[in-house]
Amino acid sequence: MKNLLIKEWRLALHPAALLFLCLSSMLLIPSYPYFVIFFYTCLGLFFICLSGRENKDIYYTMLLPASKRGIVTARFLLAILIELLQFAAAIPFALLHNVLYSAPNAAGMNVNTAFFGFAFLLIGLFNLVFFPKYYRNPNKVGMPFLFGCLAFAAGMTAVEAGRFALPAIDAYLNAQGTQNLPYQLAALAAGAALWALFTLIAYRRSAKSFEAFDL
């Protein structure tokens, strides 16, 4: 597994996936739909899979002493690393955002602890939809990405619409800075737990699909 992970990092990782980490700086844009930042994380994963198809990465990896499940495991570990790096890169900019801006976000959710919980949820939804569809046939990347984007967009719409439909959510979870911090921490924990659950389900479904796929 260690060698597969090295191979993923050195050969499969698309440069755009790392460049998109810099887009965490978009948190410094005033009044912006900040969930869009994490869409670029998903786009980076798409580029990894797309370039893998063009470079025959799957066929090359199958020549190595590795099982199909091991190949899926390595790709998921790479995806998880990229996703967590995006969150890590965003934290300093989120702190700076709350120092620079005191007005609420007019274009979406405020940048607070709960915001990151919802971002975990959205990426988890993308993982849940994209990877199982992708591993049914790794030669077809576009449609799985489209459905993954639709899941991400639907989740983002539900979060933003929920703030207006349920004023209590807006009051407790869309507070600025550290206001109502216990509720925000609960949202973060719930979002991270759902991300982990959705990613685990996606991994199991992906591994099962890829093992059944005839190369």
TrEMBL record:
Pfam families: ABC2_membrane_5 (PF13346). It comes from the Bacteria. InterPro entries: ABC2_memb-like (IPR025699). The chain crosses the membrane at residues 12-29, 35-52, 72-94, 114-131, 143-161, 181-203. The keyword Calcium does not apply. Keywords: Membrane, Transmembrane, Transmembrane helix. This is ABC-2 transporter permease.
